[in-house]
Design goal:
The chain is mainly alpha-helical. It has a single domain, classed as Four Helix Bundle (Hemerythrin (Met), subunit A), CATH 1.20.120.1760. The protein has 6 helices and no strands. It is globular and about 50 Å long. The termini are far apart.
Length: 189
């Protein structure tokens, strides 16, 4: 249980309350610290899986906790960004439109988690597709850029990159979510 990959995964889960605290009533400094912490957490996401495979220490706990850690972090950051300026536009109607990709991502995570649990009960495994990995990458870039845009608001291009990546991640989220749903529906007879 106390392998380095599992400790890295647990560190991601433990970092979530810190990220939420920093985003609660942020100033530019809080966004800067949050961005650094968010990047560190993202790096651990890569290394926990890499190290587990390289060292031959893939564990059931790691397989269980890794996607949970990802979903907790993404959901917490999205919720905090919805409540704070980085996901809001200059006018309220613009901010409202940017809620759509955030909600698509959150809802897909809930649906896919439920499907995976259902299929696991049937002993059916659904591997993560390459497209789902791209979705995760775009999602992480989007959230990181939106956090960073709070630290350096005069870099408008960072905010644009964050929003464009968020919309792209949401589009891929719909595609991968549909793929998971099709697999799940085939086994619901």
């Amino acid at each position: 249980m106390l392998t380095l990959p599992n400790l890295l995964t647990l560190s991601r889960i433990l970092a979530v309350p810190i990220l939420v605290f920093l985003l609660w009533k942020p100033g530019w400094y809080d966004y800067a610290v949050t961005f650094v912490l968010y990047c560190l957490v993202g790096i651990t996401d890569y290394f926990d899986g890499y190290l587990a495979r390289a060292q031959g220490t893939v564990s059931r706990l790691g397989v269980f906790l890794d996607p949970i850690a990802d979903k907790i972090m993404v959901a917490a950051v999205i919720v905090m960004l919805i409540a704070r300026p980085p996901l809001q536009g200059a006018a309220p109607i613009i901010a409202d439109w940017h809620l759509i990709p955030a909600l698509v991502i959150l809802l897909r995570e809930i649906i896919v988690s439920g499907l995976r649990e259902f299929l696991a009960g049937l002993r059916i495994s659904v591997p993560v597709s390459q497209l789902a990995k791209w979705k995760t990458t775009l999602q992480l870039v989007a959230l990181g850029a939106l956090i960073l845009s709070g630290a350096v608001p005069h870099w408008a291009w960072v905010h644009v990159v964050g929003l464009a990546s968020l919309w792209a991640a949401a589009a891929i989220t719909l595609l991968t979510g549909w793929d998971y749903l099709r697999v799940g529906l085939r086994h619901m007879d």
